[in-house]
Amino acid sequence: MTETPLLALDSVTAGYGMLTVLDRVALQLGSDEVLAVLGANGSGKSTVLKTAIGLTRMTGGRISLAGADISLLPPHRRAALGMGYVPQTRNVFAELSVLDNLRMGGFLHASAARAGIDQVFDLFPRLGERQRTRAAALSGGERRMLAIGLTLLLRPLLLLLDEPSSDLSPAMVALVFDAIRRIREQQHIPVLLVEQNVRMALQLADRVCVMVRGRQVLDVPVAQLDMGRLHGLFVDGGVRTGSAL
């Protein structure tokens, strides 16, 4: 990657309390790409997102956004700079309606909020049909749509999506991933995607990063990916030892 990456983690070591989870992770997200972070459960892939947004304890390395060092900034400052983080759970205001959730997302850009909400309803027609429904009454897939839509109202420079397919039906997964594709293609928002659904992630991503026990063991364009090598990192031996690399 020759241009300055939009987001870069440079030899980042991080974790929770005294527990180190990430070990010298280095990845870059370009200004017009989808980077999928894959790995088995417990590999540290979700911690990559949490570290990028500032929710872990960093003990080494550097994080930059558009070339500026943000390593010491708290999460709300990183969000204000354009990092749109969509966590896997607790990602909407449960007692508010769909419409009021989106209004909360648009409060920083009130003059353009109505147009932004209309864009979300175009992206997710189901939300338009249920805009007066409390978020707590939505299905899991609808809540995932709402969480993404709410974040889009903040006008992010990039999206950090933590397992958007988790616990969804195949039909709902297809709808969510189609929306992510449209966000990238129509709104030109790059995406750092953590995902367990490898097949769907590879259909969407430009590059793939694989995590094994907190270490980044593969970072290649999807077009150059060796599927046998990828499979080796997900079977017990590869996950246990990382010896495939």
Name a few traits of the molecule.
245 residues, alpha/beta, four-stranded antiparallel sheet, 10 strands
Describe this structure in words.
This protein has 245 residues and is an alpha/beta fold. The chain has a domain at 1-79 and 202-245: Rossmann fold. It contains ten helices and ten strands. Strand 4 and strand 5 form a beta hairpin. The longest helix is centred in the last third of the chain and has 18 residues, at 170-187. The protein is globular, with a radius of gyration of 18 Å. The two termini are 22 Å apart.
CATH topology of the domain at 1-79 and 202-245: Rossmann fold
CATH top level assignment of the domain at 1-79 and 202-245 = Alpha Beta
Helical content, roughly? 25-40%
Mean pLDDT equals 90
Strand order, largest beta sheet? 6-7-8-3-9-10
What do we call the CATH homologous superfamily of the domain at 1-79 and 202-245?
P-loop containing nucleotide triphosphate hydrolases
List the helices and strands and how they pair.
Elements: E1 7-16, E2 19-29, E3 34-38, H1 45-53, E4 57-65, E5 68-69, H2 75-80, E6 83-86, H3 98-105, H4 113-123, H5 125-129, H6 140-152, E7 158-162, H7 170-187, E8 191-194, H8 198-204, E9 207-212, E10 215-221, H9 227-234, H10 236-241
Parallel strand pairs: 3-8, 3-9, 6-7, 7-8
Antiparallel strand pairs: 1-2, 1-4, 4-5, 9-10
Helix pairs in contact: 3-6
Task: Provide a brief overview of the structure.
The protein is 37% helix and 26% strand. The chain is α/β, with parallel strands linked by helices and 245 residues long.
